[in-house]
Amino acid sequence: MTSNSKLKRMSKVLSMAFVIFIQIYWYKISKKSEADWEKLWAKIGKRFRETAFELEGLLIKIGQLLSIRSDILPNGFIHQIQDLTDQVPPSEWKEIEALIEGEWNGPLEQHLQTIEKKAVASASIGEVYKGVLNDGEGVAIKVLRPNIESIIQTDFRTLKIIIWFANHFAPIPKRFINLKLLYEELKHVIEQELDFTREKDNLLFFQERFKKQEFVEIPKVYADISTSKVLVMEWMEGIRLTDDKGLTEAGISPKELSQKLIQLFLPQWLEPGKFHADPHSGNVLVSNEGKVILLDFGMVGEMTKKDAAYFQELIESVLSKNYAKGVECLTDLGFLLPEADPKTIEKLLAELMSFQTSQLKEMDLMQVKLELNDMIQALPIQVPTKFVFLGRSFVTMEGMVRRLVPADEFNEILRPVFMEWLSEQGNNKWSFVWYWLQSHPLFKTIHSFTEFLKLPEKLEDLKEKEQRRQFQFTIYENNKTKFFSLSLLGLIGLGGGLYTSHQLILQMSIGLTIVSSIGYFIFSVKVKKWMKYMHGK
């Protein structure tokens, strides 16, 4: 990218961000209703979506990653970006040819008989072309988009400026969102996708992991001609899981296919190691012989042995009502931000588990859900990206299985697969979890019914306490906003004084700017300090 195009790209993204900040300030000062805020976030999401399609590159990928962060971002924003498709126009063939030849240090003919010059798929980071090797094998050649590193480097610089400004000046309802942590996670995930060597290693890992599973097919990778910018894999075709007609014509039993999918993904979710984080219908196919084909290993999460152990302990501690241990596990897993108060989280876990779900018909479920969401979002909890990926992988695959078989057959299919996995693992902790669930098929009888009926009262009490804590915080936040507005007024007056050379306006503007800046600094410190401690008050 030229310096001029970089500046143009940065200016478009920054102007979008600052217009959004101004809108948020105006809504904050005007004290708009919740419905108005929801509409604003929908407008912001729509503007982001349009800018992402216009500039492509990193913005589409960021949008896709943000669309799964409903735990920290407003629903109106998420709704607008949740179906962002990573389909962008392919690059010029000459650029792609030059890149491949540069990586191979020679002409394409030294390895390929033929290659189709039209991309089979084209995304924001890579493009896929179909070719045939000199030995006659069909291959998929994934190529990093030309100049994408430069574009992403520019976008990361821009994003860093926006996050710095948002942290220090913007009145975004962050609650306890750690924007810096979110930025680092986005950066880490996208940088991994930029290096095809990692995807090659992921392919080799999954081939080794599932080599004994005869019903699984994973593309062979040609490591000798693969580089960090070019990945050569076996060409594989199959039927999409959403293609009901194709599955029927191939004589594939939906029930048997569902069992295979659970057998394939259950170990990925529960065992230490890597798991496929993007198993949508384009990446999980089925062959005419009924084998599951797993594609695209660019987005892969990983559970360490420690993570898996803590995760098991978390579930066990919650089910056995050992909430202090549960909070320890949440901390070890990285769910709690540094300022979190363990006692507060422990009380929350106790509240969440102090009801019988078999009696849920007795209360307004939607109201309870809204109350719980408000409490959770007001706490210093931020789900690590690897667990967001794990949840996404589970929800996506569960949706596919439920599409294949009726809802009442889902547990029927899950049970034998899970029990077989348990017998192979010899894992007592997961056995405990499973038998607890078996003895509580509807998650019934955790506490007495009278305690369950007290839940709305407890929620109301917690809400009242939260409102009292928020009162002083609101005073600080409002004063901070007023001083910021005065600072802007002073700067505008300063500009007007310089332009008209009017000394009185100039002097008054300088005085106003200095005083309001000092006031803004004082209340910024108070807001920061209050945010750090208010959850423990």
UniProtKB/TrEMBL annotation:
GO MF, one term, reads:
ATP binding
Keyword Kinase tagged: no
- Segments spanning the bilayer are 483-499, 505-525
Keyword vocabulary terms for this entry: Membrane, Transmembrane, Transmembrane helix
Annotated Gene3D superfamilies = Transferase(Phosphotransferase) domain 1
Q: Where is the Protein kinase domain?
A: 114-443
Would you tell me the protein name for this molecule? ABC transporter
Question: Is Phosphoprotein there in the keyword field?
Answer: no
Coiled-coil annotation: which residues? none
Q: Which PANTHER family match?
A: CHAPERONE-ACTIVITY OF BC1 COMPLEX CABC1 -RELATED, PROTEIN ACTIVITY OF BC1 COMPLEX KINASE 7, CHLOROPLASTIC
**Can you tell me which family this protein belongs to?**
Belongs to the protein kinase superfamily. ADCK protein kinase family.
